[in-house]
TrEMBL record:
Signal sequence extent: none
Alphabetical list of SUPFAM superfamilies matching this protein: POZ domain
Name recorded for this polypeptide: Potassium channel regulator
Organism: Junco hyemalis (Dark-eyed junco)
GO cellular component: endoplasmic reticulum
Length: 276
């Protein structure tokens, strides 16, 4: 790689090394003109372009130029300052996206687990404010059922007939219901229900053990337990409430170069999901 292909910037004392082509993603921007020596405000000092701006915020601008996506930390709050920086550099597509602050901010997500024991069975109901989280959790949880003779809760797994997976009950997009344990079928027959929660490979029949694994899974997934209470009902259900900050969908810029456009980048907005 030749020296002309590599550009070094010192922004507010923070050093950045990148390709010239990265800075030229938007030909009308000041960064593109800087590389072409068309913007005299950016001085070349000892082989580095000196820029008297905020270096910490420029790291987000560099990330945008490299990925064409706006992806900010969940605790980010300097939207207006970053928008001003984008306007200073002439990156108006980025500035326009940052003006839509409500699309970029993470939002609070609430999830509630209800658990009750009735004789030899445990009942679970999970409700979440975000339907995609419930969908993902439903893919992790599998209920298996099988029959056994003359034995109950702690029957050895080897004495079971082959277990059959059951679909979870889904009253709505925002909740799911399932149970585990044993119940009488006919004669000395028992119907047993086991629960497995990925990535754990165990099949658990004891409701308390399933509850512990479920809560641990949620905590590892970034949820925070904020309250526990007993619901005043016949089942005396225990209710566990969790919350977490869910990262917003990132916004992406699609850049198209078209003949006869004087090299001006044409941008359009589209949303891309950035995970949990």
């Amino acid at each position: 790689m030749s020296s002309r292909e590599v550009v070094v910037l010192s922004v507010g004392g923070v050093r950045f090394v990148t390709r010239a082509s990265t800075l030229q993603q938007f030909p009308e921007s000041r960064l593109a003109r800087m590389v072409s020596d068309d913007d005299q405000e950016f001085k070349l000092v000892n082989g580095e372009f000196f820029v008297d701006r905020d270096g910490a915020l420029f790291s987000y601008i560099m990330d945008f130029l490299r990925t064409l996506q706006v992806s900010l930390p969940t605790d980010f709050s300097d939207y207006q300052r970053l928008q001003r920086e984008a306007e200073f550099y002439g990156l108006y597509p980025l500035a326009n996206l940052l003006s839509q602050e409500h699309l970029l901010k993470p939002r609070l997500e609430i999830l509630e687990v209800r658990f009750s024991l009735q004789e030899m069975q445990a009942f679970f109901r999970i409700f979440g404010s975000c339907s995609t989280t419930i969908e993902a959790l439903a893919e992790q949880i599998t209920v298996f059922t099988g029959q056994q003779s003359g034995q109950g809760w702690n029957s050895p797994f080897a004495s079971q007939k082959p277990l059959v997976p059951l679909p979870l009950e889904r009253p709505s997009h925002h909740d799911m219901v399932f149970l585990c344990g044993t119940e009488y079928s006919a004669g000395d027959q028992f119907v047993a229900r086991y629960v497995s929660i990925k990535p754990d490979k165990r099949k658990l029949i004891n409701g308390t053990n399933v509850l512990g694994l479920l809560l641990d899974t949620l905590l590892k997934d970034g949820f925070r337990l904020i309250s526990t209470r007993t619901v005043p009902s016949e089942e005396k259900a225990e209710c566990y409430t969790f919350e977490r900050m869910k990262r917003a969908a990132g916004l992406a810029i699609m850049v198209n170069q078209t003949p006869g456009s004087s090299g001006v980048a044409q941008a359009r907005r589209s949303q891309v999901q950035k995970g949990k």
